[in-house]
Amino acid sequence: MTGEEFEEFYAQAASRLTGQMYVMLGDHHEAQDVVQEAFVKGWGQRHKLDRDGQPEAWIRTVAWRLAVSRWRVRRRTADAWQRTAGNHIGGHVQGPGPEHVALVDALRHLPLKQRRIMTLHYVCDLTVEQITGETSLSASTVKTHLSRGRTALARHLQDPSIEEAHGA
């Protein structure tokens, strides 16, 4: 992959990959950081990206591994867990709607592996076979994570007011 081809790939995929990683990680700034770092690593591996024919999967996998590595480092330092709410970057940005907030909150209740598998399947639109190739998990494990993830999301996204109306 030439430098120009890589720049075009970056322009087309960076935003999409950041969104996918945001769903997996639940932290937009973290998603931006790991995707950017993965692209920096990808620049040095342009020949490999071209040869493999799946540069987006390569960047996503590297970004995921970077995120996991960061979590391990944070686990060793207690103050890293102290996060401030309401980080805001300049300019007026309309906040997320209640459905978005509810979905992100529900996703945060899922174990990380389930959240990753759900994101790869429903956001990245990957098949079970593609997910197994990207994660090195068996197809049955991927299917189990998808099934359990859907069940957990359904439980977290239930609207009590609807249940009360049906139960009354």
Write the layout of secondary structure elements.
Blueprint: H1 3-25, H2 28-44, H3 46-52, H4 55-75, H5 98-108, H6 112-123, H7 128-135, H8 139-156, H9 160-167
Q: What is the tally of beta strands?
A: 0
Structural class: mainly alpha
What best-fitting shape do the alpha-carbon axes yield?
Answer: globular
**Number of H- or I-type helical stretches:** 9
Provide a short characterization of the protein structure:
By secondary structure, the chain is an all-alpha fold. The protein has 9 helices and no strands.
Task: Describe the protein.
By secondary structure, this protein is mostly helical. It has 2 domains: 1-78, no CATH class; 96-168, Winged helix-like DNA-binding domain superfamily/Winged helix DNA-binding domain (Arc Repressor Mutant, subunit A, Orthogonal Bundle). It contains 9 helices and no strands. Helix 1 (3-25) crosses helix 6 (112-123) and helix 6 (112-123) packs across helix 8. The longest helix has 23 residues, at 3-25. The protein starts with a helix and ends with a helix.
